[in-house]
Design brief:
By secondary structure, the chain is of the alpha+beta class. Helices cover about 40% and strands about 10% of the residues. It has a 4-stranded antiparallel beta sheet, covered by helices on one side. The two termini are about 40 Å apart.
């Protein structure tokens, strides 16, 4: 019997990047859905569950996972293109991409970053290999190769000496005991302030929220459990429960992480809650609604990538698996 299709073990950078895409949701729908697939697979979800989660065909989910295992995060941006033949050879394009991603000072240029004009001028004067390319063609080439102009960021790797052992244990319990595993984490911090978001509105007449300058309510955290099995509470009462800790700076390994984004998008963004009590009631109301409508075909199609984090005393179900509240 063939082994289930699953993403390879994520690196710290890959896990953090997927978390960022899923939590913020401020990207293309293709990148968002593919990030959800990968993060859900890394959390131990099988292909049929992931396909229902993002309303995609199971073969599509398998293709995305296989592609990630081959080329990494580049699979988030599929290269769908056509048109006339390119004027530059593949080798020339590789050289342009390598030059654009090299710090100019290493190539003897007196600046710390390239602009499109400076890069075009440099490529035309490269000794022994002059490449004539226009500014717009250069932009398209770099975009096609996944090279974009972006802010410099810092990053960190897990210093946990037991990182591999902890990840091994998480994978082991997800594979061997899927019917009695749950993930626990916190969602927050949640403050009381108007939060920008998105909604349907008349053209040029966006919905507006009031601005505030005083924060007098403090912050709170929303705690919850994601049950990988069917009913973890009954099992937990009868048996001792083992806690498998995620490595430092590797919370992406927690299966519940894949379910944070939609809860934030549908309850926190585009909101202006009066206080934490009102905010908590909104969270409960949303999850109750999700519990009642989550298995309906139309609702699944409308929500697409929604995964909700836990907040109901009776538990809510996503793809047949309950999410359990821990207040």
């Amino acid at each position: 019997m063939a082994e289930p299709v699953r993403v390879r073990r994520l690196t710290d950078q890959e896990g953090q990047k997927l978390q960022q895409i899923v939590r913020r949701g401020s990207t293309s729908s293709v990148r968002y859905r593919r990030a959800v697939m990968l993060l859900a697979s890394a959390g131990g979800n099988r292909v049929p569950v992931i396909a229902q989660l993002v309303q995609a065909d199971e073969d599509t989910v398998r293709d995305v996972i296989h592609r990630f295992n081959e080329i990494g995060l580049a699979c988030l941006d599929p290269q769908w293109a056509g048109g006339r033949p390119r004027l530059l050879s593949e080798d020339d394009e590789d050289f342009v991409t390598q030059t654009a991603t090299t710090r100019p000072t290493k190539l003897g240029q007196p600046f710390t970053r390239w602009s499109i004009r400076k890069l075009v001028a440099y490529l035309r004067k490269v000794h022994g290999r002059a490449i004539r390319i226009g500014r717009e063609a250069l932009r398209c080439l770099l975009a096609r190769r996944g090279v974009t102009f972006q802010r410099t960021k810092t990053w960190k790797e897990s210093p946990d000496p037991d990182r591999e052992a902890k990840l091994d244990r998480i994978e082991e319990v997800l594979d061997r005991f899927p019917d009695r595993v749950f993930a626990f984490d916190e969602f927050g911090p949640l403050g009381i302030r108007p939060t920008g978001g998105s909604c349907w509105a008349e053209q040029t007449r966006p919905d507006r929220l009031p601005a505030t300058y005083h924060r007098t309510h403090g912050v709170r955290y929303f705690h919850g459990c994601y049950s990988v099995g069917d009913d973890i509470r009954r099992w937990a009462r009868k048996r001792k429960v083992e806690l498998c800790f995620t490595p430092t700076y590797a919370s992406w390994a927690n299966p519940v992480e894949a379910h944070f984004g939609p809860l934030r998008q549908f309850t926190i963004t585009h909101s202006n809650h009066a206080n934490h009590t009102v905010q908590t009631r909104a969270l409960h109301a949303y999850l109750r609604w999700r519990n009642a409508n989550g298995r309906h075909r139309d609702v699944l199609a409308a929500e697409r990538c929604e995964r909700a984090r836990v907040r109901s005393e009776k538990g809510i179900r996503w793809g047949g698996r309950p999410l359990i509240e821990a207040a």
